[in-house]
Design goal:
The chain is an alpha/beta fold. The chain folds into 2 domains: 183 residues, no CATH class; 159 residues, Glycogen Phosphorylase B (Rossmann fold), CATH 3.40.50.2000. The radius of gyration is 21 Å and the shape is globular.
């Protein structure tokens, strides 16, 4: 992997805001840092299999609501590509096919936080040949993944996970049966014809707020990882996009993730055995959550927990500043390697066909 050394306006200048390296979209920062000290990094671009373009597009926080504002993303990426294609011959040599970017926000390579607008904008033409590492992924055809891509987990601080586990080990007592803390609109907002969370979170609140088995909270709490570590089941409903950091936090802290997001494509499925460590509930069945979780608790909960508590699973979903064997950056490189091998096989098969002809 050759890592382009871009001027700091594309990456490190954004780190002046400390949130940039720790918020849920910060995998763009973590992957860059890990690659800089990785054994796979080469300083000779002529021996590289892939080229990493380190542009931080999610570190511009709105002064209005504090959320990442990515309206500048397309121009920033276009400027970076113009720079590397002018200074080096490698982009033009492959037309960007061996160049890797990170799009770690709601709808990935479409660079918009609302799906309708993301689809309308589409993937920038300049990225259509490249490889995009993105948190967004669905099993069906979608315009925002109509590019060579790898689904990666959202960023969760490994230090915060380790600190929580010092007080609450994964196999410790769990007095909260079903947990969710987050945005639950009593009357979900209709934006561009879409309701927040497709009303799923609203239905959870209306149906189970009075149920003692469910610990539901609508307000932020900085120590909420402690609540996850004390819970048996952690609800992971969709928001605007199907994925959320709760997926990673639940797995990392030993709480069974209950995934409520139809068609979601989960990260590193060849390594993380999602079907053995989580539950999937269809959005239309959210009102039956109580019965579904009761059934699991009475049948195979111990098996799911045993699989979930394997430390290798936790490691695969966490990004470390220095890459570790089996961690999330390692999994990215494994996925890239698999793409490379498939490309070699296709090339070899094509050459054999031409030879036979």
């Amino acid at each position: 992997m050759f890592v382009y050394e871009l001027p700091p306006k594309y990456n490190t200048h954004w780190l002046a805001n400390k949130r940039c390296g720790n918020h849920l979209f910060a995998s763009e920062v973590a992957i860059h840092r890990a690659l800089l000290t990785s054994e796979v990094r080469t300083f000779d671009p002529y021996e590289a299999d892939f080229f990493f373009v380190p542009v931080y597009v999610s570190c511009n926080f709105s002064a209005v609501n504090g959320f990442p504002a990515i309206g500048h993303a397309r121009s920033l990426i276009s400027s970076a590509v113009n720079l590397v294609s002018t200074a080096y011959p490698f982009w033009n040599r492959s037309k960007g096919r061996d160049h890797v970017f990170v799009a770690s926000h709601d709808f990935g390579a479409c660079f918009h936080s609302l799906e309708d607008a993301a689809i309308a904008d589409g993937i920038p033409q300049i990225l259509r040949n490249s490889i995009v590492l993105q948190t967004f992924g669905v099993v069906h055809r979608h315009p925002c993944q109509d590019v060579e891509n790898i689904v990666i987990p959202p960023y969760v601080s490994p230090e915060s996970v380790r600190s929580t586990l010092e007080n609450f080990p994964v196999n410790g007592p769990r007095e909260i049966w079903a947990f969710f803390r987050g945005k639950m609109e009593l009357h979900p907002k209709n934006i561009s014809g879409r309701f927040y969370s497709k009303r799923v979170r609203t239905e959870i609140w209306r149906k189970f707020n009075g149920d003692r088995r469910f610990y539901l909270q609508r307000h932020r709490f900085s120590g909420y990882q402690l609540e996850i570590a004390r819970s048996v089941f952690c609800l992971c409903p969709l928001g605007w996009a199907p994925w959320s950091p709760r997926l990673v936090e639940s797995v990392a802290l030993g709480c069974v993730p209950v995934i409520i997001a139809d068609g979601i494509r989960l990260p590193f499925s060849s390594t993380v055995r999602w079907s053995e460590i989580s539950l999937t509930v269809a959005e239309r069945n959210v009102g039956k959550l109580g019965k579904i979780l009761e059934h699991v608790a009475a049948t195979n909960l111990s098996d799911i927990q045993r699989n979930l508590w394997d430390p290798r699973t936790r490691r695969a979903l966490l990004f470390n500043e220095r890459m570790e064997y089996g961690d999330a950056t390692w999994q990215v490189l494994v996925s890239l390697s698999e793409k490379l091998h498939r490309s070699y096989r296709r090339s070899s098969a094509s050459e054999e066909l031409e030879s036979d002809t």
